[in-house]
Amino acid sequence: MTTLASACVIKVVAQLVVKTADKKILKFTSFNDGIQSVLDLNNCQDSLNEIDIADLRKKIFDSGVMKMIIDKANQVIAQFLPEHD
């Protein structure tokens, strides 16, 4: 069986520990679209497939307080949004 590399989608997974407004510590998973939304909020011109992992971590840590669209049942962050609309 042959698989073309161009047909494979790179899947980036991040495990994030989040402190909620009521001071609870929760662990969530975020995939490509969710992580890309952090880069978009930071006006980063790099795509998720091009950015170095150390730079990605720095962007996430330096993002500050953000709103999130989450699925609590599956513990997944679907998207990050700016704190103030």
Q: How would you describe the overall organization of this protein?
A:
The chain has helices spanning about 30-40, 55-60; strands spanning about 15-20, 25-30, 65-70, 75-80. The chain is about 20% helix and about 30% strand. It has one domain (about 10-80). A four-stranded mixed sheet has the order 1-2-4-3, with helices on one face. Strand 3 and strand 4 form a beta hairpin. It is built from two helices and four strands, in the order E-E-H-H-E-E. The chain has about 80 residues and is of the alpha+beta class. The mean pLDDT is about 85.
Topology record:
Elements: E1 14-19, E2 25-30, H1 32-41, H2 53-61, E3 66-71, E4 76-82
Parallel strand pairs: 2-4
Antiparallel strand pairs: 1-2, 3-4
Brief account:
The protein is an alpha+beta fold.
Which features characterize this protein?
single chain; 85 residues; alpha+beta; four-stranded mixed β-sheet; 4 strands; 29% strand
